[in-house]
Specification:
Blueprint (H helix, E strand, L loop, with lengths): L8 E5 L3 H6 L5 E8 L1 H4 L12 E6 L4 E5 L4 E6 L1 E4 L2 E4 L14 H11 L5
Antiparallel strand pairs: 1-2, 1-5, 2-3, 3-4, 6-7
């Protein structure tokens, strides 16, 4: 299984019955977080046997979804800089955020940066 410990990894969502039904199969996105659904209450697309889910921002849909890592394929990495810090993804560099802003603020900023937000 591929590890998605670094935020800003580029991923492709695998085609499964669950991702097809949710309309996200084969789309690409950027990893923006991780969670333990049993304690966070996150709604995960498909079964999550490891109680671990990855947050993926899908620019084409202008939304983020939670998926188990088994439904994701890492296809690259992204470097994002801006008002809330710097995010870099590489084999040795985790996400760095100078201010530690909440996830939704980061998502809003990233959508604006990609020209998809208001």
């Amino acid at each position: 299984m591929t590890s998605f410990r670094w935020q800003a990894d580029k991923v492709r969502i695998r085609s499964t019955p669950e991702t097809e039904a949710a309309g996200v199969a084969t789309l690409t996105g950027i990893v923006v977080g991780e969670t333990k659904p049993s304690s966070s209450g996150a709604q995960v697309i498909g079964p999550c046997p490891g109680d671990y889910a990855i947050g993926v921002l899908i620019p084409a849909l202008r939304q983020a979804v939670w998926l188990p890592p088994e439904q994701l394929e890492k296809i690259g990495s992204e470097e994002v800089t801006g008002g809330f810090g710097t995010a870099a993804s590489a084999s040795r560099n985790p996400w760095h955020s100078a201010r530690g802003d909440p996830l939704h603020q980061a998502l809003d900023w990233l959508l604006r940066r990609l020209g998809l937000g208001s």
